Amino acid sequence: MNVVALLVIFAFLVFAIYLGIRARSGRDMDLEQWTTGGRGFGTLFVFLLMAGEIYTTFTFLGGSGWAYGNGGAALYILPYGTLAYVLSYWMLPAVWKYAKEHRCHSQSDFFVKKYNSPYLGVLTSLVAVIAMVPYLALQLKGLGIIVSTTSYGLIPSTMAMVIGLVAVTVYVIISGIHGSAWTAVVKDIMVLAAAVFLGLYLPFALYGGFQPMFEEITQEKGAEFLIFGGDYPIAWFISSVLLSALGFYMWPHTFGASFTAQSTSVFRRNAIIMPLYQLILLFVFFIGFAAVLAVPNLGEEEVDLALLTVVRETFSPWFVGLIGAAGLLTALVPGSLLLMVSATILVKNVYGVFRPSTTEAQIVRYAKYLVPVVGLAALFFTLAGGQSIVILLLLGYSLVTQLFPAMLISLLPNAMNANKYGATAGILVGVATVAYLTITENNLGTLFPWLPQGIHAIHVGIVGLILNLIVLLIVSLATRGLVERERVTTAEERVRTRATT
């Protein structure tokens, strides 16, 4: 009987592969089509594509798992997306206009053009890929959990990851971002339906309603469980919201997805609509809270299983298969974009800098070769690490958000005189700070115990961001004369070149 769930999951996997391959029909997959969809996506496709990148296995498993294991601390997930959408109303139109004018195909292209520095493009590419590896590992980890649990153990977690990685690699290589967009359509419909249904059904079926559910949880776990405290105090909450809001569109696959739009009005319409999508998270939290007393014996390393465990113990196998299929798609859509973007920027903005004769056709071909390599690296990272889904996401955010100061300043009038030297130094200092604090497991409290207690738990990513901005401005100011001399020298060389030709 358990085979029924597996058959349902497998059917949706085959359907996702079909959609991904079918999306190529009638198109020549050159660099423009493969990475930006020919910049022809309308409001609906851009909405679904960005939602497909944003609402992933993190939303499906991580949100419910943190509500299950950490109570009120999970609520940090709710506000940061809304704040990011507000920011996108002004930021993304400016990014899109510049990217279209300068034919940018990736986030790194944007930095190269803005700061006139291919080596800054190399740096931002490497930072982006390093940040995306734990994010891709998050998708693979979630994929393994979903398929293994909802197939009642018939498919081991590692095998599920391998099968999913092969599937997504196939349709990324064939259809690029078109395949991701079409799969996102099915994924969003299924996730919306699954989250809303489970978020409403489980509290009433297991407790008799929302109020009785929270009353029982309060009686069993204590009122402090439902508010911020313990290992995640208010300083951590506020700084994590800020970090995630600023870094929301700094993920290269999300940043690059903005290039696919037809016009700037697409972003403004989406900025108005997408905060409503955050309401899905409330239902995801309700699922996690419903599991607190329904499946109370999950260990610290198993909190991401909360949603799937309570579903498996409540519903018939065919329905469990549908939930597993929805979860499968939450991994495949962002996973496909992460693979495509990682491979593209490594070839175009790293390899291409040292081999400037590389053509666009060669970039696409080499990027396709690199897709499975990036996937295998993420698989190794997934199998080697045991972090929870939320921790993996925050690690990636800490790194990728270090690109935000240089990006934002580049959009301001006169760019505040920031230059490539300042941007490079700021990013290096920010990333180094995050790496050091993460590896040594330090924070402000352990490094500077004399600081006020209230700020000890500020997220390490924010610490890196502050130092990043300070260094960016100081180095830019100190190297202003050098940049001006380089500009004059370049202008003189152009004049001599014209004269000789």
Explain this structure to me?
The chain is an all-alpha fold and 501 residues long. The protein has two domains: 3-389, Sodium/glucose cotransporter, CATH 1.20.1730; 412-492, no CATH class. Helices cover 77% and strands 0% of the residues. It contains 23 helices and no strands. The chain has helices at 3-22, 31-36, 43-54, 57-70, 77-101, 107-115, 118-150, 157-175, 177-207, 210-221, 234-247, 252-257, 265-277, 279-294, 306-312, 317-354, 360-384, 389-400, 404-411, 420-439, 444-447, 460-478, 480-500. Helix 1 (3-22) runs parallel beside helix 16 (317-354) and helix 8 (157-175) packs antiparallel against helix 9. It is globular and about 80 Å long.
Which assembly state applies to the chains in this document?
single chain
Supply the helix-strand structural class.
Answer: mainly alpha
Instruction: Give the name of the CATH architecture of the largest domain.
Output: Up-down Bundle
User: What profile does the largest beta sheet have?
Assistant: none
Separation of the first and last Cα atoms = 78 Å
Beta-strand percentage?
A: under 5%
Radius of gyration over C-alpha positions, nearest whole angstrom? 23 Å
What is the domain tally?
Answer: 2
SSE series: HHHHHHHHHHHHHHHHHHHHHHH
Spell out the CATH superfamily of the largest domain.
Sodium/glucose cotransporter
Average pLDDT score = 81
Approximate shape: globular
The parts where pLDDT drops under 50 for at least 5 residues are: none
